[in-house]
Amino acid sequence: MTVHPIGVNTWVWVSPLTDDALTRLVPRISGWGFDVVELPMMSTTDWDPAYAADLLAAHGLGATVCAGLLPDHDLLTDDAEVLARTGDFVRGCVRAAATVGARVVAGPLYSPAGRRWPLDSAGRRDALARLVTRLRPLAGYAAEHGVTLALEPLNRFDSSLLNTVTQTLEVVDGVDGLGIALDTFHVNIEERDVAAAFRAAGNRLVHVQVCANDRGTPGADHFDWPAILGALADVGYAGPLCIESFTAAGLEVPMSVWRPLAASRDAVAVDGLSFLRALMTKDTSTIAVS
């Protein structure tokens, strides 16, 4: 079984991420034994990439970057000002990723989370064609910086455009260098077979986020985790598994987390790390996740 690096997204504790929050969190994340910190970007000015790079290096941690579009960002609009602002944001995320040594910028890089609208077949074809055209120069810019953009499908309550791997491949296959990011939370809602969905992404899969089916601690759920890891091995994915969960307040995006998902925010990270480590050494019998 592939032994993946394990990461944790700072959204477990705080949003938006700041330099002060990183200063507090990074030593703890390193001390718990994580390999990677996932750095979310909602604005290119929330945290300083150069500072983050030095801090992570000092604690022996790698980085990944995820990005979400706010309501004033959108790659599907015909508003030239919004398109320009969105392109500037994505390019800023790419430069930040390159600075911290992250190889991927992952996320729903097409429209803000929560944007939903009816789409007939003709409307979907038009939207996907526009998205492909607008992603091509951004994916090329990312490649020039040694970074891959990874498009993430969201569940039906967060988006009406890309919900499944098959739908996402319609875009990814049309853009050189574009990859797919998959999150167990969304996959569980939209796909009939979770492991098969990871397998369907094939060699376009470049980033994986993990959590329980309720967005809580990995392992405190109904997932067939050995089957998921087997699917990742089948497609040759050897990258990190990044725990992504959210606090119940303070988020700038509508993640609909209304209750505590574990005994504490730290428990989501620590218990999830323990479960995933044991899973990859085939010793889950002694791990109890609550």
Description:
It is globular and about 50 Å long. The mean pLDDT is 91. The two termini are 25 Å apart. The protein is built from nine helices and eight strands. An eight-stranded parallel beta barrel has the order 1-2-3-4-5-6-7-8, surrounded by seven helices. Helix content is 41%, strand content 13%. The protein is an alpha/beta fold and 290 residues long.
What's the topology here?
Elements lengths: L5 E4 L9 H14 L3 E6 L7 H10 L3 E6 L12 H21 L3 E4 L13 H24 L3 E4 L13 H8 L6 E5 H7 L3 H8 L3 E6 L14 H10 L6 E3 L21 H16 L10
Helix pairs in contact: 1-2, 2-3, 7-8
Order of helices and strands: EHEHEHEHEHEHHEHEH
Radius of gyration: 18 Å
Order of neighbouring strands in the sheet with most strands: 1-2-3-4-5-6-7-8
Helix content: 40-55%
Oligomer: single chain
* Overall SS class: alpha/beta
Poorly predicted parts: none
Report, as a whole number of angstroms, the end-to-end distance. Answer: 25 Å
Strand content: 5-15%
Please, what is the average pLDDT? 91
Q: Quick one: overall form?
A: globular
